[in-house]
Design a protein that fits this description.
The structure is a homotetramer.
Chain A (H helix, E strand, L loop, with lengths): L7 E9 L4 H11 L3 E10 L4 E9 L7 H15 L2 E6 L4 E7 L4 H11 L5 E8 L5 H6 L4 E3 L8 H13 L4 E4 L8 H6 L4 E5 L11 H8 L3 E8 L9 E8 L6 H24 L3 E4 L2 E4 L2
Parallel strand pairs in A: 5-6, 5-8, 6-7, 8-9
Antiparallel strand pairs in A: 1-3, 1-4, 2-3, 9-10, 10-11, 12-13
Chain lengths: ~290, ~290, ~290, ~290
C-alpha cells in the first residue's frame, strides 16, 4: 500500500536493542495523536540492533511536523535512536540515469504514469543522446551529458549540478553503463540504486551475461543494490533469476535478462520510495 | 525464528480496527514485564479488522500465566478482542494421517528430528498398514484404522478417540486419501491441515494430476489448506508450483509434484506451529 | 534462435506413429539438399501420434519451394503426414488487439523494435481510442473499432475486413477486453493468442484478480492460450505465477499481475512466431 | 521417460558439425532395425560441434550389441564421431558418499525405492559412522572410511578399492564434506556429481550459507556439478534458488537450503542416469 494520504508518514528507525522499545515508540505516537496503520520490525541479534518501520496517520487533525519532531527528539535521546520521517504528501524527486538500453527506463516511466511509483521523475540524464525521444513522450526533461571516460570530472560536475538544481532525493541507474566516481557516490550515499545484470556476487564487473555463458550456469539473474565506491558490491535490495540452458546464446541471455532486470529494479525502487529499506551494517533490511 | 525459550510466548489477536490499538497492546504487555521480540500486524480494510502477531518474552522473571490472562481479559473487554496465547515451552501435539504414500510423512519426521518443527509428533494414523515400519524407525506410535468407506463412522470414532487420548492439537493430512466427515472436521475446526496435490481452486477433487495432464497446463502445483466441510475448499495457507510440459506423463507429474507437496505442506505446518496463521473471514492470514 | 536467414525454414509435422519416421524425414530433406539445423520431436503415446519440428537450411543453393513441396507431398502420402512449412524470409503479419491497458502492447512493440520478435506488426485494433498515441510512436496503424456489445457483428465485420486487407497471419489479444464471437474465432482458428490474467483453469471469466483475492490464493498467474469458442478454455501455450499475500489488495494484484501477463504473452507469441507450437488433441505441444 | 525396456538404449554422440549428420545417423540406425523413440540435438556454433541424444528401440528383434557397435564404428570414421551407448537393461551402479547430513541421501534412497532413479545404489561410503542405520533400513551396504585429513591417501585408496570391487559407474557426493584429491577425481572423470550448497560461482568453498548471510543476498541456491580438480568449479548440471530475507539467520538458510540441495541433486543424478548430460568444452549440455 502506498503512503499517499495527506496526513500520513512513514518513520524508519533503528537503535540499540533493549526491552520496551515497541511500547515506548507506540506511546510516543499515541500521545501526539498518531495512529499506527502498519508496523514491522526486526532485531539484528548479531549487532544488538532494533529496526522498525512505522506507517502512521493523524486521523483527527492535521499533523504538525514540529510536534512530531519534538516527540522523536526526546525519544532519540532516551533510546539513542536514529530515525527518519517521510510525509506521504511530499513525493520524492527522482533522477534516472540511462545509456542506450531503454527497457528499465520504459518500465519506470510506465509505472510512474500508472501511479504505481510514489515519486516525481524530475529528469533523465544520459551519456548518450539516443533516448531523448522516450523522455519527451513522457514529458520528462532529458539531459545529454557526455562522459569522456569513466568518472570524467567535467561530466560528473555537470550531473551533480543538475541533481542539486532539481533537489534530487534518489538517483536510479537504469542500465547506466558508466562507472561513477567515489566522490559522486559519496554525495548520494545510500541514495543511488543500480541494477546489475547478474546474480551478485557472481559475475560482478563487465559483460556478466558473457561470463555466465562461459561458466555454463543454469540460471541468470539481476541484482538491484545501492551503489558504493566498491564496484557492484553495495547493499543488495532485491534479486531475481530466470532459467537458461545450453541452447541460450549470450544474445538470448541478454534478452531473457531484460525481463528480470526491469522487474527487479522496479521492485527495489518501489520499496525505497515506500520507505521499506534501511541500510544497516552494510546490508539492506527490506521490510517488504 | 522458533519461539522455544522458556519465558516466551506468541500472542495472536484480532479485533475491530480503531486508532491506538498498537499502543494499548504494547502498554499492556509492558506493564506486566513482557518485551516484544517481534510484532507484525495487518489491517483488513474491507471488514475493518485489525490482526496482530506478537512474539513476547519475559526477560526479568518467570512469566505468570494468570497475570497475562488477567491483563488481556481487561483488554479484551475494551477492544472487543479475540486472542490466543501459546507458550513456547509447551510444544503442540500433532497427529499425522497418511495412506500409502510416504514422501510428506518422511519430510515431516525428518524435520521434527532435526529440530525444525516445534512440536511433538504423538501418533500416526493410517487407513492402511503399509507405513508402519517408517513410523517405527522414528519411534512414533502407528495406528492402522481401516475405513470401509469415506467417513466410515466406526473408523472415525476410533480416530477421534485416539486424538482425544493423545490430547492432539493439530491434525496433518499428509496425503491421507480419505474424505473426512463434516462431523470430524467440526471437532478440529481450523486445526486440520491438508495437502492437496493441485494449485487450488483448479483441479479440486480426485486425480488432479490426471486433470492437469488432460488440460495441458504448463505448471502444476500443491496447496496446503485447512480442511473444511466443503471438499478442497478451506482457507489456503501455502501454495507452490513447478514447471511441466507436453513431455511429462501423468506419472512424471506425480513424481515432480511430490517435491512441491512435501515442501508446501512442511511450510504450512511450520508456520502453524510458529503461530503465524490466523483464519479470518474464510481466508488464512499468514504472518511469514 | 530465430529462423531468420534467407535459406532457412521451419517444418512442423505430425502423423500416426510408426518405426522409421525420423530416418525417412531426414532422408527426404537430405535428398533435396536440406540440412537439419535443429530437430525436436515428441511421441504422444495416448493417441499414437508422432510430432516433430525441424529447422532446416539449404546451405549450398537457394531452396526451391516447389522441390520441397513435392518431396513432402510424397512423404505425406506414405506417412499420412500433416505438415506446414514457414520460410524465415517471410515474417508473419501480426495484428494486436487492445482495449485500454497498454503494458502488453508496449512490451510487444519494444520486443519487435529490438528484433526479438520475428514478425511484422501490421496494425493495432482497439475498441477504444486511448492507445492511439502509443501506436503512433512506433509507427503502427491504429484502428479504433467501437463495439456496441460483445461480438457486435458490425464491429467484427470491420475487424475481419482489416485483417484480410493486411493478410494477417496471427491475432494477438493483448488485454483486449471484449469476447469475440465463435464466428470470428473460427475464421482464425489456432491463430488467435489471448492472455488471460489468471492461472487457468482457475478464475476463468471476468475479474480474475478479484476472484483470486476473495479465494485467498498465495500465487496469482497469467495464461497465454489459443482462443476457442469456449471462453478462456483454449489450448494453453504458456503460464506464469507470482507470489501474493494477505497484504496485497486487488489493486496490488493487478499491478503484480502485469509483469506476469506481459512476460507470458511475449513468450507465447515468440514461440508461435518461431513455429514451436502445434495444437494436437486440444492441447498445445510447445517445442521450447 | 526412463529408458527401461529390454530392447532400448540411449546413444549420446558429438562430432564436428557438417550438413547431413542427422540423416546419416538416422539411416545408420534404420538399417540395423533401430527405431528412434526420441532425438534431441544441439549445435555449438562457437566450437562448430554437433551433439545429439538418441533414445532408440529395436522393436522387431533383440538388438545385437555387436551389430550396433559395427555400424557406429563405420560412422565414427566418416564423421569423426565420439559416441557412447547405454542399454536400458543394465542400470548403472552408483556409490553415494555422505558425511553427517542425510537429507540428500534420504531423497536419493526414496527415489530409487519408488522406481524414479534408474540405477542400482550399490554402496554408501562415509567418513563418519552416523548414517549407518539409514543405509541399513534401505538394505544398502555402508562403509565407514575415516579420513585423517582431506585427500588422505589411505582413506582414498580404500574408497577406490570399494568402487572397483562394486564396478561403480557413478559417484554421488551427497553432502560429502571432504575435498577429494585430484588423483581420485581423475579416476572418475565426469563421473562424480557433487552438490554444492550455493549458487555457483558465488560462494565457492566453505560455509557458503554464512558467506551468503554476510553478503545479504536475497536468494540462496544450490548447484549440482561434476567434480573436477579445481574446487567447486566443474561443469554445472543443475541449479536452483529459494528466497531469503534479513529475517533469515544462517541456521534458517541452512534449513531452507536443504530443500533446494536435495531437489537439485536428484534432478542432476536422474538426468545423468537417463544419459541426458554431455560434458563439452568444460560445460554440461543437458538434454532435459
Amino acid at each position: 500500500m502506498d503512503a499517499s494520504s495527506p496526513n500520513e508518514a512513514v518513520i524508519l528507525l533503528h537503535c540499540p536493542d533493549q526491552p520496551g522499545i515497541v511500547a515506548r515508540v507506540a506511546n510516543c505516537l499515541d500521545k501526539i495523536g498518531g495512529n499506527i496503520l502498519d508496523a514491522v520490525q526486526h532485531t539484528d541479534f548479531e549487532s544488538g540492533t532494533f529496526l522498525q518501520r512505522l506507517h502512521v496517520s493523524w486521523p483527527q487533525h492535521d499533523s504538525d511536523e514540529q510536534v512530531v519532531r519534538d516527540a522523536f527528539t526526546a525519544l532519540k535521546r532516551d533510546l539513542n535512536l536514529n530515525w527518519r520521517l517521510q510525509w506521504s504528501h511530499t513525493p520524492r524527486r527522482v533522477a534516472i540515469f540511462v545509456s542506450r538500453e531503454d527497457h528499465c527506463l520504459h518500465d519506470l516511466l510506465l509505472l510512474r504514469r500508472d501511479g504505481d511509483l510514489h515519486c516525481k521523475i524530475s529528469l533523465i540524464i544520459s551519456n548518450h543522446a539516443d533516448l531523448e525521444d522516450v523522455a519527451k513522450r513522457f514529458g520528462v526533461p532529458y539531459h545529454h551529458v557526455p562522459m569522456e571516460f569513466p568518472g570524467d570530472p567535467d561530466g560528473e560536475a555537470e550531473q551533480l549540478t543538475l541533481l542539486k538544481e532539481h533537489n534530487i532525493d534518489l538517483v536510479v541507474l537504469a542500465r547506466y553503463m558508466q562507472v561513477l566516481s567515489a566522490r559522486f557516490i559519496a554525495a548520494y550515499e545510500s541514495r543511488i540504486i543500480n541494477i546489475h545484470h547478474s546474480f551478485l556476487p557472481a559475475f560482478a564487473g563487465g559483460s556478466p551475461y558473457r561470463q555466465a555463458h562461459e561458466k555454463g550456469v543454469k540460471l541468470i539473474g539481476a541484482t538491484a543494490h545501492f551503489a558504493t565506491a566498491a564496484l557492484d558490491d553495495g547493499p543488495i535490495i532485491e534479486q531475481g533469476v530466470t532459467r537458461v540452458s545450453h541452447r541460450d546464446s549470450v544474445h538470448d541471455m541478454v534478452r531473457k535478462g531484460r525481463d528480470i532486470e526491469r522487474t527487479v529494479l522496479a521492485r527495489a525502487v518501489r520499496w525505497y520510495l515506500q520507505d521499506r529499506v534501511i541500510v544497516h551494517k552494510g546490508r539492506a533490511v527490506v521490510f517488504e
